[in-house]
Write a structure and sequence with these properties.
The complex is a heterodimer of chains A (590) and B (574). With 590 residues, chain A is an alpha/beta fold. Chain A is built from 18 helices and 14 strands. Chain B has 2 domains: 2-310, Up-down Bundle (ABC transporter transmembrane region fold); 333-569, P-loop containing nucleotide triphosphate hydrolases (Rossmann fold, 3-Layer(aba) Sandwich), CATH 3.40.50.300. Classes of the chains: A alpha/beta (590), B alpha/beta (574).
């Protein structure tokens, strides 16, 4: 994770470019915001001039031009109204841009997640990815909003003030301008140093999120093993690291403000000195006390934006570091897209051919090599073998969750890489051992594969797999809301729901990976009947340990270490007295 | 909010010094208009250039002092804020770890994660800003007012009116946006949940071609969040324009009063400039305050959300009993008319179960899906407490034991094989953290896992990904069994934990457990009759009720449910 640290400014500007690209869409609001900022700044700057004029009308006892003062103050009132209104509109525009951009980025992120190769998702902790989509984007939004509200008006204020100051007196303006670069230098010096610290902070935060995700997700095991203290120790280690980096990042970035403010004060003192001398020298005619008052007010306003901009710059540092992390995810290489000429698999005839397939998850560890299998329409293929022999991998390949390294897989005579993933996967009904349910009602979970199913169809499917009776007993029946990962449902109940889900859509081909491993055998036998009906005329792949579910298969593939070592019907394999026969007999051993 | 104070207590020094130095800085800032006023009234009026230079040097000195104070304050504020957040994360994590299964089931993982990360960050931000500015801003505001009073009481009355009006605006906006920020955080929770689900369920979602639906679902929630954010933004965006108007209207009044008072000779021109400068200072401060208010309001909303997690008390009270030597004749495990109803559930999941198990016995628990098998054994290590009846271990109610003592006695292997990021050895040490490699290999032997572990690069040092994603289901399961065996438990519970194992491995596993030297009392929960038919006692559950109890032969003879299960698995062969 600590690899991409030193690229510094280059990657920073690349990130900024990407952010700008996403802002482009909202050019209208951006334009409006800039215009409003200009109006706000101009009118804000105009007020001190007016007030200065008013002060010049108030010279001393008995020497006050009330008529002029009234006229000026009326003008001030009008200008204030304009300022307030334009400021409010600007705020709304900025909010809009910021929140729309963050929304867009999150949308992009989720779209990316849907097309990321399984390899990426399997290889990254969920917590880390989630932290990018949620926490990082949030931080980014904070920075962006601050940038908008303060950056524009800051820059405009600087130029506006300069203009007004030059109009009043060029020489004193020079005093102000000469000190300015110092302010900029200090701000950029600090900013450069804090970027790296913010990145470290962000990384430590990612580590922590991943750890929390793991420990809270696995809390039951943590408690069962009394691992709390150990977990706490590890947590504190990461927490301490985060504390160290955060303190550094926050402290160094917060020096910017006082530092630039100090330079402001120098400017202020410079103006006071030269201005006062100018008044004395000109005898209060060429340069008035009112002018000095306006000037001092400007000196404050002129340097304040530097102040703010430098504040914003540090905030932006942080937000760019966060944006870089989210863009890393968004720009992750997606799975190879469907070729543009890829076909829709419409008529599934049920033949599946694996030709010389080789595959492995890691290059240095061979798994499946030169695998051949030819399945005819309607055949039932059972895959058995000791754990870890590559059964689940076959399913990863059939569903094209992973692409084969060598060889090809054909469905209905077409290479699956030449058809759309959508149509390929629609051709299969899949039930995995790893039961997964989404947050939502029971019904919503069942109709995943067929959203337009009627209540009757849903109930019929549930009855077919004997899930109806337990669903009925839930507090709200089919409308019972289940939380993340099924919550209080038992593993078996979850599995029944997953089977119902497939039952409902009548797919042409089936993949059952340990589909009934958590279901009791009495229910299983009943489900088998339903499956049998479902599988009639359909090609199906069944991974199972329970030999009773396998006996009736047309072809049994016995796998070991990624190879098929035996292949045939139950009786043939038994007669061969090989690996399968061994496996079968062990069921009844002891 | 109260909670934040608790964690700030450890940083008393910092909490005092940060605002103190900020206030010092502000104090010196407040002198600036006075100095300028002196320059105008004395230096310019008296054409006294050396005096002007002297005063300018004073301005620079004030600036230097201000800088020093400010940097000191920033350091203390950052230290206190980060320290507070770190402490809070530590305790929140500890608190969450102490929650029982019942609470975890209802709260959900994803919201706990946002609270531990994003919410605490916001609080940290808030604390930092408060320490820096919340005292400084009022100080400047009131300080400016007091300074104004020292110049001219009548003109200063304008300040006295303006400040309450500003307070109403500031606090009004803060109060009205606070509940909205809470909603925003809840919206964030929702999209976090969806993101997580899309990662955990990636295979199913793709298999059902649901990617687009999921994207829509996410976008919808994201859109809702977006609307909320914009709405809150609109309200808090009022702050700046409103305060601006109020301040400038008071400046108009101030100038007018100034004009009158100067005309009558009670005020000088320089003093009017000073008054005007003070009002401007208030404005500058308020602009800062407005940004701060947003941060603080968010922080308060987040602190509330964190507090609500702290308020969830574990429903499980720890007992006090340390280790206890069992009497020879007492049963190791005894259930006395035990029932369990999950919170929020309609029916009891287990009702009226009674049985006794003696040392070294093997008990099988069999029954249909949802018949209450897991619920039954989950009560032994007190994952859930019986709603009625008593569960006794060595003759003592499980509720009387200290939880860690109780759980030390029990090794449980759950249905879901969960491993953690780290080496295989680290995972094994979960069982007992002082286990030697030899002991670990012994446990791996029993769990039939030695072979594949030895094939791995680095063996015990081989790396396991989060959730054991780089291992197959069967490998994961065997490692979780080994993890339980490392602990050498007195009671071993295998909760359907051999479901991903093939029969040969399953059988070998059972044999090696039985051959152990000090073989534990074993509970085997399974749907495979073969896995438990040799048990000393088999408990047959049907819908949470005991349908039969006894040995395999007895049950075959007189338990209809058991017969059905058995013959469904051993058709003709039996």
């Amino acid at each position: 994770m600590a690899s991409k640290k030193s690229q510094g400014t280059k990657s920073q500007s690349a990130t900024i470019k990407k952010v700008l690209q996403r802002i482009k869409k909202y050019w209208f609001f951006l334009g409006l915001s800039v215009v409003m900022a200009a109006v706000t700044v101009a009118s804000t700057l105009y007020v001190p001039i007016l007030i200065g004029n008013a002060i010049d009308c108030i010279v001393g006892a008995g020497d006050v031009d009330f008529k002029a003062v009234t006229a000026i103050l009326m003008k001030v009132a009008a200008v204030i109204a304009v300022t307030a209104l334009s400021q409010w509109i600007m705020n709304i525009c900025n909010n809009k841009i910021t929140y729309h951009v963050t929304r867009d980025i999150r949308d992009e992120a989720i779209e990316k997640i849907e097309i990321l190769p399984l390899k990426y998702i399997d290889g990254h902790s969920y917590g880390e990815i989630v932290s990018r989509v949620i926490a990082d984007v949030d931080q980014f939004a904070d920075g962006l909003l601050m940038g908008f509200t303060q950056f524009f008006s800051g820059v405009l204020t600087i130029f506006g003030t300069l203009l007004f100051m030059i109009l009043i007196d060029v020489k004193i303006t020079l005093v102000v301008v000469i000190i300015t670069p110092v302010s900029l230098f200090v701000a950029s010096f600090i900013a450069k140093h804090t970027y790296a610290m913010f990145k470290q902070q962000s990384e430590a935060r990612g580590d922590q999120t991943a750890f929390i995700d793991e420990m809270i997700g696995g809390q039951k095991v943590v408690q069962a093993y009394g691992y709390e203290d150990e977990a706490m120790k590890k947590f504190d280690e990461i927490n301490g690291r985060l504390q160290k980096y955060s303190l550094k990042a926050i402290f160094y970035s917060s020096i910017t403000n006082p530092a630039t403010r100090f330079i402001n004060s120098l400017v202020y003192a410079g103006v006071a000195l030269t201005g006062a001398i100018a008044v004395v020298m000109t005898g209060g005619v060429g340069f008035t006390v009112g002018n000095l008052s306006s000037f001092l007010s400007y000196a404050n306003q002129y340097t304040k934006p530097f102040n703010e901009i430098s504040g914003v710059v540090t905030e932006l540092q942080n937000s760019i570091a966060c944006a870089a992390r989210i863009f890393e995810l968004i720009e992750e290489k997606p799975e190879i897209p469907d070729a543009h000429n890829s076909v829709e698999l419409k008529e599934v005839d049920g033949t599946v051919d694996l030709n010389n397939v080789s595959f492995s998850y890691a290059k240095d560890k061979k798994l499946i090599e030169d695998f051949n299998l030819h399945v005819k329409k309607g055949q039932r293929i059972a895959i058995v073998g000791p754990t870890g022999c590559g059964k689940t991998t076959i399913i990863n390949l059939l569903m094209r969750f992973y692409d084969v390294d060598k060889g090809s897989i054909d469905v209905s005579g077409i290479d699956i890489r030449e058809m759309t993933r959508h149509s390929l996967r629609a051709g299969y009904g899949m039930v995995l051992q790893d039961t997964w349910l989404k947050t939502g009602t029971i019904r919503e979970n069942i109709v995943m594969g067929k959203p337009d199913a009627t209540d009757e169809e849903v109930i019929a499917a549930a009855k077919a797999v004997h899930a109806h009776s337990f669903i009925k007993r839930l507090p709200k029946g089919y409308d019972t809301f289940i939380t993340e990962d099924g919550g209080s449902l038992s593993q078996g109940q979850k599995q029944l729901l997953c089977i119902t889900r497939v039952m409902l859509c009548h797919p042409p081909m089936l993949i059952l990976d340990e589909a009934t491993s958590s279901i009791d055998t009495r229910t299983e036998i009943k489900i088998q009947n339903a499956f049998a009906k479902l599988m009639e005329g359909r090609t199906s792949f069944i991974v199972a340990h329970r030999l009773s579910t396998i006996q009736t298969a047309d072809v049994i593939l016995v796998m070991k270490d990624g190879h098929i070592i035996e292949q045939g019907k139950h009786e043939e394999l038994l007669a061969r007295k090989g690996f399968y026969a061994n496996l079968y007999e062990s069921q009844f051993a002891l | 909010m109260k909670r934040v104070w608790i964690y700030l207590k450890g940083y008393k020094k910092e909490c005092v010094f940060a605002p103190l130095f900020k206030m010092l800085e502000a104090l010196f800032e407040l002198f600036v208009p006075l100095v300028v006023s002196a320059i105008i009234d004395k230096g310019i009026a008296g054409k006294d250039i050396p005096y002007i230079i002297k005063m300018t040097v004073l301005l620079v000195v004030l600036a230097v002092i201000g800088l020093t104070c400010s940097i000191t304050a920033q350091y203390f504020a950052a230290k206190a804020a980060v320290g507070c957040a770190t402490g809070m994360r530590h305790h929140l994590f500890a608190h969450i770890q102490g929650l029982s299964f019942t609470e975890m089931d209802t709260i959900g993982t994803s919201t706990l994660i946002t609270r531990m990360t994003s919410d605490i960050n916001q609080v940290q931000n808030g604390v930092n800003m408060v320490l820096r500015l919340f005292l400084r801003s009022p100080f400047i505001v009131f300080g400016a007012m007091i300074m104004a009073f020292t110049i001219d009481v009548q003109a200063a009355l304008v300040f006295a009116v303006t400040i309450p009006v500003l307070a109403v605006i500031v606090f009004g906006i803060m109060l009205s946006t606070r509940p909205l920020y809470k909603k925003v955080q809840a919206g964030l929770d929702r999209i976090l949940g969806i993101t997580r689900e899309n990662l955990t369920g990636v295979r199913v979602i793709r298999a059902f071609n649901k990617q687009q639906d999921e994207v829509c679902r996410f976008k919808q929630s994201n859109e809702e969040l977006n609307h909320l954010q914009k709405f809150v933004g609109k309200i808090s965006g009022l702050m700046n324009p409103l305060t601006y108007v109020v301040i400038n209207v008071s400046i108009i009044v101030l100038i007018w009063i100034g004009a009158v008072r100067v005309n009558s000779g009670t005020l000088t021109q320089g003093q009017v400039v000073a008054l005007y400068n003070y009002m401007s200072q208030i404005l500058v401060e308020l602009i800062k305050l407005a940004n701060l208010i947003i941060i603080v309001t968010k922080a308060l909303a987040c602190a509330g959300r964190i507090e609500s997690v702290f308020e969830v008390e574990s429903s499980m009270k720890d007992g006090s009993l340390e280790r206890q030597e069992a009497m020879q004749q007492t049963p190791v495990v005894e259930f006395k008319d035990v029932s369990l109803r999950y919170s929020g559930a309609g029916d009891e999941s287990v009702s009226g179960v009674s049985f006794k198990v003696f040392k070294g016995q093997t008990v099988g628990v069999i029954g249909g899906t949802g018949s209450g098998k897991s619920s039954l054994v989950n009560m032994i290590p007190r994952f859930y407490d019986a709603t009625s009846g008593e569960v006794l271990i060595d003759g003592i109610n499980v509720c009387d034991y200290k939880l860690n003592v109780l759980r030390d006695k029990v090794g449980i292997v759950m249905q879901k094989a969960q491993l953690f990021k780290g080496s295989i050895r680290e995972n094994m040490l979960w069982g007992r953290n002082d286990a030697s490699d030899e002991e670990i290999f012994e446990a791996l032997d029993i769990a039939q896992a030695r072979e594949f572990v030895e094939k791995k690069d680095g063996k015990l040092d081989a790396f396991v990904d989060q959730g054991g994603k780089n291992l197959s289901g069967g490998q994961r399961q065997r490692l979780t069994i080994a993890r339980a065996m490392v602990r050498k438990p007195e009671i071993l519970i295998l909760d359907d934990s051999a479901s991903a194992l093939d029969y040969a491995t399953d059988a070998a596993l059972r044999k090696s457990i039985r051959d152990m030297k000090n073989s534990p009392t074993v509970f085997i929960v399974s749907q495979r009759a073969a896995s438990l038919m040799h048990a000393d006692m088999i408990i047959v559950l049907d819908d949470g009720v005991v349908a039969g109890m006894g040995t395999h032969e007895e049950l075959l003879k007189n338990c209809e449910v058991y017969r059905e299960i058995y013959y469904s698995q051993f058709k003709k062969e039996a």
